[in-house]
Design brief:
By secondary structure, this protein is mostly beta strands. It contains one helix and five strands.
Length: 79
């Protein structure tokens, strides 16, 4: 049985893939745990920037805000 890594209410950081250019980068809050699809748990999340909700896979998320931000710097950090 597959178990969810993140809890409802937890803040997570979105880890974009090559096809995720349209999804805003930043901090999301877990709103709901959803059933796994293809052995990857899914979550309904809310973007902290504008309140928009979407569904993301567990493999697209990292726990916390500080460690994830350090691991995935913004575009400004590269300039």
């Amino acid at each position: 049985m597959i178990h969810h890594k993140f809890a409802v209410g937890q803040e997570v950081h979105f880890l974009p893939g090559s096809m995720d250019f349209h999804v805003p980068r930043g901090i999301y809050t877990i709103v709901r745990q959803l059933p796994a699809e293809a052995r990857d748990c899914q979550y309904r999340v809310r973007f902290k920037g504008d309140g928009h909700e979407r569904i993301l896979r567990e493999s697209q998320l990292a726990a916390g805000t500080a460690s994830a931000s350090a691991q995935w710097p913004t575009a400004k950090a590269h300039q």
